[in-house]
Each structure stands twice: as C-alpha cells, then as structure tokens.
Amino acid sequence: MLIVFSGLPGTGKTTLARALAASLGAVYLRIDSIEQALRNSQATGTDIGSSGYAVANAIALDNLNSGRRVVVDCVNPVQESRAAWSTTAASAGSRLLNVQIVCSDKTQHRQRVESRVVDVPGLVPPTWQSVDQHDYEPWQPSPFTVDTAQLSPQAALALIVEQLAGCSE
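^ thats the sequence. predicted structure below, dont judge the formating
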C-alpha cells in the first residue's frame, strides 16, 4: 500500500507520517530530504522542479514492487504530483491512501511554521509568508483529511490508522 501525506508546511505531516511509517514498519520517503540531496549534489542546478517527486515515485515503485508499504511525506500541491502517486500505486498493483493534513487554526499554523526546527541539513525552512501564499490546488475529490488544530498527534494518528484499516479490508 502507498500512503501519501499531503499538505502545507507546518501542518504536522512529518510528525504523523514518521509515526505511521514506524508503527507499520513501512518505508518512509520525505520529499524535503530528497530535494535537499538533489540541491546538495548540484545535479539539477538551482531549480530542481519536480525532480524530487520523480525520484520519490521511482523509489516508492521499487519498494511497492518488493511488497513493502510506503509512506510519503510531501506538500503534493498540484494535480500533476497527485496523479503521479496514483500512477505509481497502480503500476505496482497497490492500494493508494491519500491523507491530507491541514491546520485550520491560522494562528497555531503560523506559530508552528515560525518555530519549526529544521532536521534536514542545509534545508532552508519556509517563512510564514511563503506558506500562507503557497499555491495549493483544491483536491478533486477531497481525500481523507485530518485537521491537526483539532486533534493531538496521538489522536490524529489513531484516526489515520482507523482509516487505513478500513482501506485494507
């Protein structure tokens, strides 16, 4: 199964995706880490574009084809990237669960972005202004969505695990 966490920076995607991957023993792919590695390698110059997503899809497909569960942590802001995950899951004959993470409390969201501790060496964290103005296309149809302004990380994870159990039946 391919489980893709999507949402703006500071919503809690990384916290939840890491926790889910650990609890499932799944492969964890983080777009921030892949994109920073591409920047560091200078293989793509300064504009990496969608290269990080292409690399992550290839790694996800290899792991899905090996029978592993894969959890992806990404912003996934446009239909093109969302369709690519769907194609990857279909190519492996795997189920896909899209999990959109939001933080409906703008004050709380801003505080999270501004107090964020970067754990990817070299990664420049986004500013609140860049997050607030980030292009993020509406989903059609809406995926399973968790609002981290309303739930503790533990409660949010429990809700995701419950949704996952329903998808596995």
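Residues 153-168 form the longest helix (16 residues).
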